Amino acid sequence: MMYLKLLDNAKKKKIVEMLEKEYGIKKLPYLLVESGSGKYWIYSGALSKEEIKKIGDEIIIETIGTKLCTIDKDDIRLSFDALNIPEIKRQITKGVYEMPEEKIKEWLKGENIETEINADEEYLIIKNQDDFLGAAKNRKTFLHNYIPKERRVKN
Q: 65 pairs with which residues across the strands?
């Protein structure tokens, strides 16, 4: 039994519409896969949908590709890994917060950043110069850090 679900074009279109509304992303030239509730992955390897399904019938596949996003209710948060995939990075034009230079070290350590946010978006992409540094939940008075523990800078 296969744990992941290959999305059809209608469901993929709905997710791309959410990505466009929140981040400006209009194209996803990848196979889109759901793994668990609200977790989506992109795959661009050599296997076709049919080959993935066939393998999934014989062994348990929990994930494939690179994590794209998490959807919770109507909110979509891009994953840390997807932010700097060139095809995705160059499309991000909305929901970006330019992190002040003096706060970068705190952010990279995984700390939440206290600051007044004048943005309506639920999730923001944290940027410094040309680099995307992760995603944050906009709490209006602080940014909730979503850098994975294994990616945080240690002291």
A: none
Amino acid type, 70: T
- Per-domain residue ranges of the chain: 1-93, 95-147
Q: Is the pTM of this model over 0.85?
A: yes
Q: Which pLDDT score is estimated for 2?
A: 55
CATH, range 95-147: 2.30.130.60
CB 42 within 8 A of CB 65: yes
Shortest CA distance to 61 belongs to which of 118, 142, 22, 5? 5
- Which 3-state string (H, E, C) describes 58-69? HCCCCCCCEEEE
- Report the run of H or E that residue 35 belongs to, with start and end: strand 31-35
In whole angstroms, what is the distance from residue 130 CA to residue 43 CA?
Answer: 25
CA separation for the pair 57, 55 (Å, rounded):
5
* Residue 68 tokens, joined: 């794209």
User: What does DSSP assign to residue 118?
Assistant: -
The amino acid that residue 155 corresponds to is N
Residues of the chain with pLDDT under 50: 1
Classify burial at 5, counting beta carbons within 10 Å of its beta carbon; exposed 0-12, middle 13-18, buried 19 or more: middle
